[in-house]
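User: I'm designing a mutation panel for DUF5009 domain-containing protein and want to avoid disrupting the core. Could you give me a predicted structure to guide residue selection? Please restate the sequence first so the numbering is unambiguous.

Assistant: Good idea. Sequence first, for numbering, then the predicted C-alpha cells:
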Amino acid sequence: MNALQAVPKIRIRSMDVMRGFTLFLMLFVNDLFIPGVPKWLVHSEADEDGMGLADWVFPGFLFMVGMAVPYAVAAREKIGSSTTVIFVHILIRTLSLLLIGVLILNGPRVDPQLTGMSHLLWLGLLYVFVFLIWNHYPKDMQYQSIYKGLRAVGIMGIIYLLYIFKASDGKGLEVGWWGILGLIGWGYFAAASIFLLSRGKIIVVVCGWLVFLVLNMLSQMGFKVEFPGAGRYLHVLLAGNIPCIVLSGTTIGMLMKRYAATPRVLLRFLLVIGLIWLVAGFVLRFWFILSKIHGTPSWALICCGISVLLLIPLYYFIDLKGYQQGMRVFEEAGKNSLTTYLAPDLIYFVCWGFHLPLFFYKQSDYMSLAIAGSLFWALAMLWYAILLKKLHIYLKL
C-alpha cells in the first residue's frame, strides 16, 4: 500500500518528535553564552525588526501545545469523562502551570538576608517540591500511602517557601508576565476551553483564533482591552498573542485528526495553510515589526507558518513512511515535555551554587566550543529526562 494511502495510527509520532525537537532547541538556545555565538542563533532585541533561531523555539512549542489539545480531549472522552470533568481538568492544569510559572518567575527576586536562604537554594527546593507534588507515581497500591506522603511534603514545602519569601524591594510575589509556564498555561486554557466548549467545531476554533489575532493587532496599535481589577491578571489573554499561537496549533491538530485517512489531502492543506500564514506574517510586517519580546502578530504568524512547514516532512517520513532512526530521543522527550524542560534547571542551580566548572565551554573567545558545548548539553538533557522517567520521576499535570 502506498504510504500516502495508509491510515496513520491514532498516536501521531511526528507530534512527539517535533515537540521533543523543539525542547532540544529550547534547551540549546537557553544555554548559549551570547557573547560567543552568532546573532542569528539568539533573540533579537525588543525593538529590532528581525528574528533569530531563539525567537522561534518558544512559539514552536506553544504551537505543539495547541496541536495536542484535540487528541488529549478525545483520549479523555474515550475513557468516559464528561465535558464538565474535562473542563475541571483543564482548569486544574492551567492553575498548576500558572502557580509554578509565577513561583519560578519570582525566584531570582529572593533576598538572601530577608528570606534566610539564597535564591538558588529557594529555587532548588521549589523544583524538588514541584516534582514531589506533580510527579506521576507508579500505581503500586502498597506504596500509595508513601506517595501521598511525598505529595503532602511537597505541598507543605511550597507553603513554607511562600511564607519565608521576601524580595529586596519589600514586595511579595509578583505576577509579572507569568513566566514561561504561566504563558503556556494561559494559551492552553484558551485553546482547550474553546475546543471543548465548542465540541470540536473547527469553525468556532478558527473564529476564536481570529478574535485573538485581532486582539493582538489592536494591542500592538495601543487599543488595549481593559477589565478593571482583573486586567493585570488577564493581560496574556487580552494581548491575544499567546492564545493566537496555541489556537493555530489546535486548528492544525483538528485537521490532522479529520483527514488522518487521507494523507494526501492533509499534506496539501498543511502546505497551503503554512504558506498562507508565512505570507500573511510578512504582509503584516509592513505595520508590525517582527518582535518576540513585544509579541507582534507578524512574528506570531511567521512562527506558526514555520511550524507547519516543519511538521510536513516530519509527518511524511515518520508517520507515513515509518522512519525511526535517531528519532527515539526526541520522541521520548516530547512525551515527557515538562520534565525535559524543568529538570535541567536543578543541575544549573547545583553547579552555580557550588561553583562547579561544568560549563567551561561558555567562552566568548571560542565560538565553536560555546555552540558545540550547548548542543551537547541540550542532547544530554534529553537523555537525562528519559533516565528520570525510567526511575519513575516525571511530571504529569
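For picking mutation sites, this is relevant: Confidence is low (pLDDT under 50) at residues 1-9. DSSP finds 15 helices and no strands in the chain.
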